[in-house]
Amino acid sequence: MPISFENLAGYAGLNKIWEALPEARLVGGCVRDLLIGRDVNDIDLASPYTPEDNIKKLQEKGIKTIPTGLDHGTITAVIDRRPYEITTLRRDVETDGRHAVVAWTDNWQEDAQRRDFTMNALSLDQQGILYDYFGGEADLKKGRVRFVGEATKRIEEDALRSLRFFRFQARYGQGEADQDACKAIKQNHALVRNLSIERVASELLKILEGPEVGSIIALMQQTEILSEILPHPDPENLKRLLACQDPPKALPRLFALNPDPSIGRHLKLSRMQQCALKAYANNEPILLPGGSDDELRRLKVAQELSLLIDRSWLWQAKELGKPSKEWSHFRQRLSLLPQPEFLLTGRDGMELGLPPGPNLGIWLKKTQNWWLEQGCRPDKEACLAWLKEQVSSDS
After folding, report:
1. pLDDT digits 0-9 by tens, 54-87
2. 36 and 130 co-located in one domain
């Protein structure tokens, strides 16, 4: 029976692409998610035509094209502002564990052979006919993440597939992980050293923000991949955070798994991400779930709310390692309290007669400290009155 395209109702441009490229097929994640009824977030197609022919045929139908990855045979068609990635069928000519030299082909099975997992080697034509060369549909229904062909060969072609295996196992796997895959990953765990750290970091963060994190990290530890990609992994510490039923955020989980702010530099994360990790490592300001509203307002002045929330989960994990109504209430109060803002500026001070310069900054700082002591409650007029009184008494 043909596969229904009901879940693709939002991709009206797909029919226009099939008018231009009638032999093109849906491939990859969109086919996988269609089969199990999940929402489709993007559309990838494969075509037996060369990239140049794909561009020509699409443009003849008035479809805008962008040569997003011509070296790899990939172009992007844009219809009603929605992108559709189209890649020419390929075969590997040469691989080095990181990159592949490819050649075009018109053989669908040859293209499917170079994909990582059987569930990713499926393709679907415009009639809804599914093409399954390696048993991917059955594996998908059973929740079995299995390499196409020989697992070791697939990993040797691209060591990143070892990390992708864990991510797919978390999202699509059911029950025990495929033993052939785990054995091959363990035997070839050192190959991930050849990957760029940016590729490793990208996959690791996706794993940490996904489902089944505890069991997947344990599996990564068993296959010796975890110690290859992190200098000082601490899965037990991560377990404490997960036991608190934390939200699926990658950075706090990364810090729990490797509680050293230098891990951000090691993984070459963005500057913003590295700053967040440093904030997690800093015990100031102190978080107290039973604090007053004044104390909570001071916290919100001292540190960004998102960092305070992240740190509260890490503190809860450290102190309790289990769910806590008290900590949940603390986060709720933090979120609901309006953000305090100290409104005095240098101009306000000068209007009171203070000359510009370092002394003006000192007076503003004194006023802000008083404002903080008052729980950030005084408004601008009250702050001005306090400053005026202090300046007068000092003169």
Report:
1. 999 999 999 999 998 888 899 999 999 999 999 9
2. yes
* Angle at alpha carbon of residue 296, lines to 293 and 299, rounded to 5°: 155
Whether 274 and 353 map to the same domain: the answer is no
**pLDDT at 224 > cutoff 60:** yes
What's the average model confidence in pLDDT over 363-389? 95
- What are the distances in angstroms from CA 243 to CA 165, 220, 287? 24, 19, 20
**How many domains, the chain?**
4
Please check whether residues 273 and 329 belong to one and the same domain: yes
Query: Considering 203, 229, 255, which residue would you say is the last residue of a domain?
Result: 229
pLDDT tens string 300-348: 999 999 999 999 999 999 999 999 999 999 999 999 999 999 999 999 9
Beta pairing class for 44-47 and 82-88: parallel
- pTM here? 0.90
Strand ranges, E, within 48-148: 64-69, 74-79, 82-88, 90-95, 100-104, 123-124, 130-131
Q: By residue range, what is the domain housing residue 37?
A: 1-142
